């Protein structure tokens, strides 16, 4: 304390020092106006924590006056101390005045807020009173207006009626004047006459049943007919004069046709506009109803459009007899285009049918209900395609019907029949069918795109085969009957060529089917061999589940193929006990083969023996083309899967029990697969090779006793 | 394990599961030091099945096969350069580079096909051969005449094919014009006019079991050997007519 008083020697300093300590902590707080806020929200606490708590920092939170004073006293000279004390005093005074100003301002604001609120309250009370008055007035107004309108209701109705009647009368008057007007303008201004007539025509037709209207209509028709005659005479003169001037007839006909064409197109566009707008968004559940009644639409279409067409045709023929060639060419072109369109329609139809079939195959079946059988699907597909083809032929026949004028043209008799119909339509369609079918086999598998389901491949193969057998010749004879080709006409694709194409497509599809199914089974086998630990496996107690699965899958494939293809020829079994005979055979061979562990000299013999045997047995082609019967297809699939098993086994090293497991599996497969293959020696041979390779790859080849193997298989 | 084809025999590459490891042999060849490696990322257990150095580009490229994909790697950065997806239906068994033509690669697989690829455009094979009736285990180009291709398959056949159209000499042996006399020139023009057709030269069916390896001899470019499961090694020669046709 003595030191403190000594330190603050000047008079104001003595008073200042207790204030000092009090004010400095307070000053520190005010000097940083957001200090408390910052402390609350965080960042300065970090900063403050970082800086070492400095007891001598006046503005810091850890200010300690004792420490501060000792430090200051020890460090600073007297002059500096005095200056500091003065500065502190000034700061304190400034802070005080700031505080007072802030207080005063706050108080002012508070007062003004209270005043404003009071004023608002008063004003709202006034407004309430005014709103009540307004409501009362409005009620009064609405009551009086209701009274007025009720009073005038009656008169209003009668006035409207009279207005309607007047409009009707005006229209009738206009109609009555139509013939007069027509007559007046027919001579001089045909355009106006036409317009007037067009306008009136619709109404007249509608009210035809009323006799008075009938009369008007007849009159106007007569006048218009006269007008048409006159115009036609003028046209004929014009045309004749042009022809005399040797204008080329084709140009004239072209011009005439183009004019007529625009007219017809306009009418067609009007008709189309009436149709419900094509639902491009596809969101509406049902299409909107047509704008006009369907009967009316058809009537208008047929009478107006076709009538105009006939008229034009007639006038054309009357005017330009020399234009026959152009006309024929035109008709020919129209015919060809029609045929093209029919072809495209056929193609889309076929694709649609295929899509349906695919959907039927892929649809999830409710449990307990069999899906559509493959023969049914095939029958429906074939029947629908054939039906569609016949319908199209019938349509096209209209072109060559007896009563049509241009059918007698040489073009139609000869070239049309052959080129357009036979080649362009029928042959092209059949070829396209074969190509598309092949596309299922060749295309998708390469790029890994979703491939066609195997059942679809089978179906298409059978379809192509049927086409080759019977349908193509049927179609061709039908076409020839309806459109007899000329003897000296252009070359015709012979039936056998098409049949060959169909057969090739069927072959390709069937091969692909075999490959796909074989690959599926092979993949299962491969996975099973690769993922099993063959070295350390235990003694086999039962057949592996994957083998049973393989047999089940092959049985399912057998059923599926059996639905569409016939059984096929199999190598005749020698006797019922042939199975047992074969197994005895293999068991008699088995000790000889696996003997190496017992007789050292045997390895040479067994190798020689097996090689000689291989020389005599036929080499098995694995991915060879299959024939069109069930047995051949299944043999192909079995060959592929067994060969995969062989190759995979050769890549692994087996322990003794691994070998025995392979032996058991092989026996099981042979028990169940022999009945599917066309030649059971094939199955036998492959399985023997599997066993032999396994024995080669085995560290300790001790085969299981044959009776035990049989026991295990029968149990499984 | 594959040695670098050129250079001083110091580098070699090995494939283990899904890693490619590049080794550097020390001077005394006493031990090998791992210089870089690359790992194949992907789901499931990916395993490299085979790989090959590319003899071009100063030996900085290798190609590997795993499942149905063929990938090319740059050995300087150990990153993948190109990737041929779905090269073969089930599994790619072997690869080989064309020794004379850059960017050409042949691969064979379990769909019984041999496909030739241009690595600049890996969406479509340049050519496909479908002569075998089961998995093709090996495909090899002849070291000097790259139109001769040897393939061995588990249908016990070895097929020698003449892939002239994609070899480096599609039009036969070219001779400089000023060396020829007039008669020879005419003859030569006739020969050059039409490119030779690709064909199967010969099918060797001496094996009784699957053929697992075929190789060309490095001493004599017309000699090749094939090995099958039953332990039989067969050595064959390219037919003489074809040999003279190619040489002359």
Automatic annotation (TrEMBL), chain A:
Keyword line: Endosome, Golgi apparatus, Lipid transport, Protein transport, Transport
Domain of life according to the entry: Eukaryota
GO terms of biological process kind: endocytic recycling; Golgi organization; Golgi vesicle transport; lipid transport; lysosomal transport; protein transport; retrograde transport, endosome to Golgi
GO CC annotations, alphabetized: cytosol; EARP complex; GARP complex; membrane
Pfam families noted in UniProt: VPS51_Exo84_N
Region (Disordered): 1-41
Sections of the chain in a coiled coil: none
Record bears the keyword Transport: yes
Entry's localization field: Golgi apparatus, trans-Golgi network; Recycling endosome
Assembly, per entry: Component of the Golgi-associated retrograde protein (GARP) complex. Component of the endosome-associated retrograde protein (EARP) complex.
Stated role: Involved in retrograde transport from early and late endosomes to the late Golgi. The GARP complex is required for the maintenance of protein retrieval from endosomes to the TGN, acid hydrolase sorting, lysosome function, endosomal cholesterol traffic and autophagy. Acts as component of the EARP complex that is involved in endocytic recycling.
Family: Belongs to the VPS51 family.
Name this polypeptide is given: Vacuolar protein sorting-associated protein 51 homolog
Record organism: Picathartes gymnocephalus (White-necked rockfowl)
UniProtKB/TrEMBL annotation, chain B:
Record's keyword terms, sorted: Repeat, WD repeat
Pfam families, per the entry: Beta-prop_EIPR1, WD40
Family, similarity comment: Belongs to the WD repeat EIPR1 family.
Region forming the signal peptide: none
Tree of life domain: Eukaryota
Record-linked PANTHER family: EARP AND GARP COMPLEX-INTERACTING PROTEIN 1, WD-REPEAT PROTEIN
Record flagged with keyword Oxidoreductase: no
Organism: Picathartes gymnocephalus (White-necked rockfowl)
Protein name: EIPR1 protein
Annotated ranges, domain EIPR1-like beta-propeller: 1-160
GO biological process: protein ubiquitination
């Amino acid at each position: 304390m003595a030191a403190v008083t000594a330190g603050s020697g000047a008079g104001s300093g003595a008073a200042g020092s207790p204030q000092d300590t009090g004010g400095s902590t307070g000053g520190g707080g005010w000097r940083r106006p957001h200090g408390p806020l910052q402390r609350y929200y965080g960042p300065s606490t970090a900063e403050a924590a970082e800086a070492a708590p400095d007891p001598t920092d006046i503005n810091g939170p850890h200010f300690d006056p004792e420490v501060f004073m000792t430090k200051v006293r020890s460090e600073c000279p007297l002059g500096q101390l005095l200056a500091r004390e003065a500065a502190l005093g000034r700061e304190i005074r400034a802070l005080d005045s700031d505080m007072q100003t802030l207080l005063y301002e706050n108080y002012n604001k508070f007062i003004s807020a209270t005043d404003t609120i009071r004023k608002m309250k008063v004003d709202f009370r006034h407004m309430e009173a005014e709103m009540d008055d307004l409501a009362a007035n409005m009620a009064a107004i609405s009551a009086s207006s209701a009274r007025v309108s009720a009073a005038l209701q009656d008169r209003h109705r009668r006035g409207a009626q009279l207005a309607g009647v007047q409009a009707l009368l005006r229209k009738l008057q206009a109609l009555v004047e139509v013939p007069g007007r027509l007559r007046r303008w027919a001579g001089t201004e045909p355009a106006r006459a036409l317009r007037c007539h067009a306008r009136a025509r619709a109404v007249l037709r509608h009210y035809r049943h009323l006799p008075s209207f009938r009369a008007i209509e007849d009159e106007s028709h007569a006048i218009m007919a006269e007008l048409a005659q006159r115009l036609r005479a003028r046209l004929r003169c014009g045309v004749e004069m042009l022809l005399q001037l040797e204008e080329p007839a084709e140009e004239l006909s072209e011009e005439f046709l183009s004019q007529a064409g625009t007219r017809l197109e306009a009418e067609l566009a009007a008709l189309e506009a009436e149709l419900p707008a094509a639902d491009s968004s596809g969101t509406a559940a049902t299409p909107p109803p047509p704008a006009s009644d369907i009967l009316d639409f058809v009537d208008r279409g047929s009478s107006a459009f076709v009538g105009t067409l006939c008229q034009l045709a007639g006038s054309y023929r009357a005017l330009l007899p020399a234009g026959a060639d152009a006309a024929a060419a035109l008709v020919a072109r129209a015919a060809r285009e029609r045929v093209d369109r029919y072809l495209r329609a056929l193609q889309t139809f076929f694709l649609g049918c295929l899509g349906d079939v695919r959907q039927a195959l892929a649809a999830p079946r409710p449990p307990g209900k069999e899906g559509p059988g493959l023969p049914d699907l095939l029958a429906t597909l074939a029947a629908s395609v054939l039906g569609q083809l016949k319908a199209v032929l019938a349509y096209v026949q209209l072109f060559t019907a007896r009563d049509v004028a241009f059918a007698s043209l040489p073009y139609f008799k000869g070239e049309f029949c052959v080129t357009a119909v036979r080649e362009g339509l029928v042959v092209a369609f059949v070829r396209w069918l074969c190509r598309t079918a092949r596309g299922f086999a060749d295309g998708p598998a390469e790029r890994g795109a979703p491939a066609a389901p195997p059942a679809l491949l089978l179906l298409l193969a059978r379809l192509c085969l049927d086409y080759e057998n019977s349908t193509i010749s049927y179609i061709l004879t039908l076409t020839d009957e309806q459109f007899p080709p000329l003897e000296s006409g252009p070359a015709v694709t012979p039936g056998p060529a098409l049949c060959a194409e169909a057969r090739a497509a069927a072959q390709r599809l069937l091969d692909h089917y075999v490959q796909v199914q074989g690959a599926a089974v092979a993949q299962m086998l491969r996975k099973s061999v690769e993922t099993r630990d063959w070295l350390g496996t235990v003694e086999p107690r039962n057949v592996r589940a994957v083998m049973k699965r393989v047999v089940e899958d092959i049985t399912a494939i057998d059923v599926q193929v059996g639905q569409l293809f016939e059984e096929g020829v199999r190598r005749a079994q020698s006797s019922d006990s042939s199975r047992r005979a074969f197994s005895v055979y293999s068991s008699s061979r088995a000790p000889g083969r696996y003997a190496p562990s017992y007789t050292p000299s045997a390895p040479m013999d067994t190798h020689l023996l097996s090689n000689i045997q291989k020389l005599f047995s036929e080499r098995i082609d694995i991915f060879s083309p299959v024939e069109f019967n069930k047995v051949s297809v299944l043999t192909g699939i079995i060959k592929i899967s067994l060969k995969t098993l062989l190759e995979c086994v050769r890549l692994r090293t087996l322990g003794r029990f691994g070998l025995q497991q392979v032996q058991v599996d092989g026996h099981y497969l042979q028990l169940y697969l022999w009945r599917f293959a066309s030649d059971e020696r094939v199955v036998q041979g492959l399985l023997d090779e599997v066993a032999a390779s396994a024995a080669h790859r085995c560290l300790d080849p001790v085969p299981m006793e044959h009776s035990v193997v049989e026991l295990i298989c029968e149990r499984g | 394990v594959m040695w670098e084809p050129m250079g001083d025999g110091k580098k070699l590459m090995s494939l283990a599961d899904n890693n490619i490891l590049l080794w550097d042999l020390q001077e005394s060849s006493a031990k090998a030091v791992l210089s870089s490696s690359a790992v194949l990322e992907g789901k499931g257990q990916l395993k490299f099945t085979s790989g090959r150095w590319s003899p071009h580009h100063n030996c900085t490229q290798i190609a590997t096969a795993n499942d149905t994909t063929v990938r090319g790697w740059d050995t300087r950065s150990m990153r993948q350069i190109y990737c041929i997806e779905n090269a073969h239906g089930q599994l790619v068994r072997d690869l080989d580079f064309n020794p004379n033509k850059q960017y050409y690669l042949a691969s064979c697989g379990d769909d019984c096909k041999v496909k030739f690829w241009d690595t600049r455009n890996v969406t479509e094979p340049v050519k496909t051969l479908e002569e075998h009736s089961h998995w093709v285990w090996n495909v090899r180009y002849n070291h000097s005449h790259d139109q001769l291709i040897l393939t061995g398959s588990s249908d016990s056949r070895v097929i020698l094919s003449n892939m002239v159209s994609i070899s480096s000499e599609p039009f036969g042996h070219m001779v400089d014009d000023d060396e020829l006399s007039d008669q020879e020139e005419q003859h030569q023009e006739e020969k050059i006019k039409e490119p030779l057709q690709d064909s199967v030269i010969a099918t060797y069916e001496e094996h009784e079991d699957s053929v697992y390896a075929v190789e060309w001899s490095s001493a004599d470019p017309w000699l090749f050997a094939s090995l099958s499961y039953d332990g039989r090694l067969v050595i064959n020669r390219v037919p003489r007519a074809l040999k003279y046709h190619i040489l002359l």
